[in-house]
Each structure stands twice: as C-alpha cells, then as structure tokens.
Design brief:
mainly beta; 35 strands; four-stranded antiparallel sheet
Length: about 525
C-alpha cells in the first residue's frame, strides 16, 4: 500500500489520567509487548484515586516509585508502589521490558533496608533498580552507589541479558564505586556507569569526567556492543575530557564512546558560547547518532543557527567516530526544553519537550497554559515537517513521547490541569497526576479514497470501536482478497474469500487491535480499493 503524505496536524485518539490525592509526577512511559503501556514516576499519595497502596512513609513527606500498567486503550490494569522509609528521590526514571515479560525499573533511593528495599544506602542517594514480573510483583532489588550522592538517569538491557545503568556520581572510591572522581573534593559530579548481570549483580563500573561538573543524562548500547554516553559538561580539557568547552564555565554537550567493557574510545564536545546540555541519544541506520538537548547558544562554536529566544531544542547528527555532520535548532519566542527524541518508522525524528513560547520561530500554535508539551517531527536530515502544541488548561511537564506499534504517538506528562482542550478527566484533589494522550499523525496518510474507478467499496462505521463492516456492492462477485495493515506497514489481518454473494458484506471483529489508523485493502478481479479507518 502506498501512503499519501500531506501537511496536517495531529488528531487526538484518547487521553487518560492516573493519580492519587497528592503530587504524582510521571518520569517515563513505554509501550508493552501486549500493546498496553507502563508508566513510572514518583508519588507522594497514599491510598486513594487510582493508587491502591500506601507509601512506606505514611506521613507522605517522601517520594516512592509508582508504576501503572494499562491496556492498549489506556484503561488501568494494575498499579504498584515500591520504596523504603526515606526518600526514593525522583521515582522511576527509566523502565524497560525484560524477556520474561516483566520489567526493570531504575531510579534513586536514600532509604536504608526496609519496605521494598533490601540493602542499606551507602550515603546520600544511590542508584536503585527493581525487577518486577508481568503483574508488578517484585522479584528482586539492588542498590549501587558510593558514600556521597549518585543520580540515575537511564537504564538499558544489554545484549547479554544484563543491564547498563547511567547517571552521575559525586562519590570517591567507596561502596560500589571503584574510581575516584577527577575532582577529589567530590564537590562536582562525573559520569558514572555500572554494568550488571541479569540478576542485578555488579560486573564492573566506570567513571568519566573532567575537573568540573559532568552530568550524564542518557546512554545506549551500540550495534558494535559498546556504549555511547551523552550529557552536559562544564569541564575543560582534563581527566577523561580531551577538548575545552567553547565558553569556560558553561555547559556543552559531551559525548563519550566506549567499548563493551566500558573503556573509553573517544570523546567529543559540541556547543556554542552559552549553555548547552545533551538530553537524549539514538543510533541511526548508518551507525551514526542523533543527539538532542537544550541550547541557549547563538551561532558560535559547533552551532550554526541562532536561538529563537531563550533555550531551544538543539539536535546534532554525528558519524560513528563522533564527527559532526549537521546540526539544527528549533524554538519559539521563550524557553523550550527537550525531554527526549526517537527515530520514527519513516526514518524521521520525533522531538518532545516543554515549551513556554507563543507563536513565533518554529512554533505554530500559542500555549494555553504557561508551559505545554511541544512536539516536532522532522525528516531524517532534521528538516521540520510539523510541530504540535498539546493543549491543557494549565501547566504540563513532559516526561517523554514515542511512536506506538500502530504508527501513532503516545505522550506522557504530569499536570494538575482540569478538563478542557485535550484533557478529559479532572485531577484527583486538584494535584498533579500522571497524564498520557495518544495522537494519530494525519500527515502519514490523509485523503485516501478508492484508488480505482470501478470497485464499489464501503467501510462502516469509521471511526470504529470493535467491529468493522466491509461492503462490496458489485454484482457477480467471484472472489476477493481482504487485508488490513497498520501505519508501520505490518499486515494485521488477511483473508481470501470465494463464492461471494451480490452486495457482499464482511463483518470483522477487530477488538484485539490497538487504537490507531489502519488501511483496509480489497482486491477483486484485479481491481483494488483502499480505505483509511480509525479504531478508537
């Protein structure tokens, strides 16, 4: 089937709110193998609203991890709280689904042994990982840290079935940390990664940094088995860092490439004459990388475009050796802060973050609240195709966005906004709750009609919920081939029918399909008819 592209905005399919009676802040959302979603973040709330377990600190003065599992329509299936008797920090900062259909949760904790936590804290906050089964039951947990403070930002499953954890550390040699920071006073942070086996047992750890602050925000395992680490660095050439920043004292992007054992292969600094911090990295099909973050720099250093106003989204494309191929700046009239980026099924890039901007620069819609989710879709070369502001009746903070299995987009954020615009459910007790919203991209396919002149084809209802009728009005039908595919080009239904009656109607139960956009194709005696349908 051939999709017909045309400029348009996103169209909302559904939205859902989840929370308790106090503050609940989402940090990460993934789609699960069954087509549903798992949401993770931090929670103050006790039992109430959508929350079925009390925090371990029943004074509700500290955060615990909170995860919510939904089906493909966003209906809650279960929720679980994990924590100790002290503060469990920013909650779940990273989630991955494991081969056994369970999940690994990553975050930080200052709790000693107690509650769901089985190991005492080394000091300050430590990395904390929790393994759960497919129903949210805890299987094991591990603490990793030193005697000062560590902040975990990302966790990935490695090719050998283990895990790689990344963030930054203020600790010297102590606890699970085997290398001193370059600033031995421990007043500044260095990147810190930890490799574990499939049960969370530490195999090795590595520190990377200079003599000033270096804060890792994302990492991935690369196709060659190594790792690429990104974040922000205020260090000049020193320690593991081989290039000065463009403006002393300011942050620039800092990229570190390692082998499979964590040994540094190369590092690169990218930035301009003001503050620049990398947030997210993806590997591209050509073995290069796209790195996205926040920039306040005008044209200078590695930056070829001025900011539109305040902070902007800034992405750079590098090759496998870290050489810059191009860079792009996107922004509005005020501050725009990137949360994450992903490669989409068409090879383009989806950027998601938070915007305080009105119309201007690259932003085509005014905010409703002071801060709103802002999406940008580009082609593979970073040229903007469209942008979309996600309207809610108040401020919203974006955790991440991604393309779903059916080619749509799912955005996770937290907000206390009341119903209005794209939000349909009230917050619990007017406090911040998790909020997810699903959109279809009408630029992928729009205006697809019958692409032949003779085949009389009708689909009803459209949009549909569970059942779809496909009617052929021709006389003397002999046979027909029916197929349905999603927006990733995957065939989700196919059937060959013979001995058809005149004005034949085929009734399909498609309740098992995730919500989204599909193409229905019918072939009769060489004539082809195509219809776009929406399941909601």
């Amino acid at each position: 089937m051939t999709a017909i592209a045309q400029q348009d905005s996103l169209a909302k399919l559904w939205d859902k709110r989840y929370g308790g009676l106090l503050m609940d802040e989402i940090s990460w959302t993934i789609q699960t193998a069954d087509g549903g979603y798992l949401l993770g973040g931090s929670v103050y709330s006790g039992i109430g609203g959508d929350k079925t377990q009390d925090n371990w600190d029943i004074t509700y003065n500290t955060y615990d991890f909170w995860v919510v599992k939904t089906d493909s329509l966003g209906n809650k299936q279960w929720d679980k709280r994990f924590g100790g008797f002290s503060d469990d920090g920013i909650g779940v900062s990273s989630i991955r689904q494991t081969k056994d259909n369970g999940f690994i949760l990553g975050g930080i904790s200052s709790s000693d042994s107690g509650g769901d936590k089985t190991q005492a804290c080394w000091g300050g906050f430590d990395y904390w990982m929790v393994k759960i089964d497919s129903n949210g039951n805890k299987m094991w947990d591990k603490r990793l840290g030193g005697t000062n403070e560590e902040l975990l930002w990302c966790l990935q499953i490695t090719a050998d079935g283990g895990y790689i954890l990344g963030g930054y550390s203020h600790s010297g040699i102590s606890g699970d940390k085997t290398q001193d920071n370059w600033d031995i006073s421990e007043s500044t942070a260095d990147y810190w990664i930890v490799k574990t086996d499939s049960l969370g047992n530490k195999q090795w750890d590595k520190r990377y940094g200079g003599t000033d602050d270096d804060e890792l925000t994302d990492l991935i395992q690369t196709r060659d088995g190594g790792y690429i680490l990104v974040g922000g660095s205020a260090s000049d050439s020193s320690g593991d860092k081989t290039q000065n920043n463009w403006a002393p004292g300011n942050y620039n992007y800092w990229i570190v490439k390692t082998d499979s054992a964590g040994n540094q292969l190369w590092d690169k600094r990218f930035g301009g004459n003001a503050e620049d911090e990398a947030i997210s990295v993806v590997e591209t099909p050509d073995d290069g990388f796209v790195i996205g973050g926040i920039s306040n720099s005008n044209i200078s250093g590695d930056k070829t475009q001025n900011t539109q106003g305040g902070d902007d989204y800034w992405i750079i494309k590098i090759d496998s050796l870290g050489n810059k191929l191009w860079d792009k700046d996107y922004g509005g009239t005020r501050n725009d802060d990137l949360s994450n980026l992903v490669i989409t099924s068409d090879g383009g890039i989806l950027l998601a973050g938070n915007s305080e901007s009105s119309i201007g620069g690259d932003k085509m819609e005014n905010n409703v609240g002071a801060r709103q989710t802002w999406l940008i879709k580009t082609d593979s070369a970073g040229n903007k195709l469209w942008d979309k502001t996600i309207f809610v009746n108040g401020p919203a903070i974006t955790s991440n966005a991604f393309q779903t299995q059916d080619g749509c987009y799912l955005i996770g954020s937290w907000t206390a906004a009341e119903p209005g615009y794209y939000k349909t459910q009230a917050s619990w007790d007017s406090s911040a709750d998790y909020w997810i919203v699903k959109f279809r991209d009408t630029t992928i396919i729009t205006g697809i009609k019958d692409i032949t002149t003779n085949l009389q084809l009708n689909v009803y209802p459209n949009p549909f919920t569970n059942e779809l009728d496909i009617t052929l009005a021709q006389q003397n039908l002999k046979q027909a081939d029916f197929s349905i595919c999603n927006m990733l080009g995957q065939t989700v239904y196919t059937q060959h029918e013979t001995n058809l009656s005149p004005s034949y109607t085929k009734m399909l139960d498609l309740s098992y399909l995730p919500n989204g956009v599909y193409l229905v194709e019918v072939v009769v005696d060489g004539e082809v008819g195509v219809r776009e349908v929406v399941k909601q």
